[in-house]
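Please check this today:
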Amino acid sequence: MILSGRDGLVKWDPTGVGGLTAEALASIKAFTLSLATEKINVTCFQDTNRVYIPGMRDISGTLTGFWNSDDMSLIEATALTAPGMLELIPHSNDPSAATPHAFTGLAYMDAELDTDVEGAPALSGTFMAAGPWTLPAAAMARLSERADRNRERVAA
């Protein structure tokens, strides 16, 4: 189901626990999430083209919004030496989902403040995974089904 991003949500827990202790980051208006998997070159002599195998997934992304002096969470996160729990929810009110589709995991955060006389001060940040991440339950179920089909195909 395609829905507007206006009900997106970004939650952060500096303790790294997440769940009920995670709080919404104020004044965030957009996020990006990259789930890129590195490709390892395994090309050998006499191959007719390059050959690759998948390596590790590299989870990272960006947050953008506005400076809000009532919420210093993103600024404070940049000083942490241990990762916090980040939760990215593309749509928090999806009527087709029992719980919101969430991408969740430990992350390290960076931030940047951009102030201009002609606009509201902008706050942006980047994050990178600091441990395993979970994908929405529906995506995990489909991954499991695909893995089962791949195992069956290889065994045949």
The CA atoms of residues 26 and 71 lie 6 Å apart. The longest strand covers residues 52-66. The mean pLDDT is 89. The first helix runs from residue 73 to 77.
